[in-house]
């Protein structure tokens, strides 16, 4: 079944909040914003247009990854890099729910995210992962990522920085 990246809708709240809870143990926030689901959808819309952004945030698309009508993961696609994003955040953040891993979804999410950035004029895409996250490193490398270096994040944990393109 093909994987599609799409914006969240009113019908996605239950699935997204369930994945958010599942990914807490990975220290990953699946939901873009706190508050009601309406607040989340408004934040997604504003981020996509680059409007009303919090300090330090850039225009970004928050997209759900769907396979056969089921939300399996998500991607955050950032169209610019702040100093923080250039160091340890990158252009793309992605996750796949634990029940959907090892099916190639992460690779397809990243591939489609990079294609969207390329279509928007971003030729070199920075993608980062924790140094000990072998699955994410393999995903990035499968999408053409070339390791530039490993740097500490703000908590001192090592982060691998890859460039695609």
Brief write-up:
The chain has 165 residues and is α+β, with helices and mostly antiparallel strands.
Please indicate the count of domains: 1
CATH architecture: 3-Layer(aba) Sandwich
Run of helices and strands? EHHEEHEHEHEE
Determine the number of helices (DSSP H or I, runs of at least 4 residues).
5
Residue stretches low in confidence (pLDDT < 50, at least 5 long) are none
The CATH superfamily is Gcn5-related N-acetyltransferase (GNAT)
Average pLDDT level = 93
Helix and strand composition category: alpha+beta
What gap, in angstroms, lies between the N and C termini?
A: 27 Å
Count the strands?
A: 7
Main β-sheet, in a few words?
4 strands, antiparallel
Provide the gyration radius in Å: 15 Å
Shape: globular
Helicity, as a percent range: 25-40%
- Strand order within the widest sheet? 1-2-3-4
Query: Strand portion, in percent?
Result: 25-35%
- CATH level-3 fold name: Aminopeptidase
Just give the CATH class: Alpha Beta
Word description of this protein:
This protein is α+β, with helices and mostly antiparallel strands. It has one domain: Gcn5-related N-acetyltransferase (GNAT) (Aminopeptidase, 3-Layer(aba) Sandwich), CATH 3.40.630. Helix content is 33%, strand content 28%. The protein has a four-stranded antiparallel β-sheet with strand order 1-2-3-4, sandwiched between helices. It has a three-stranded antiparallel β-sheet with strand order 5-7-6, sandwiched between helices. The two termini are 27 Å apart. The model has no long low-confidence stretch (mean pLDDT 93).
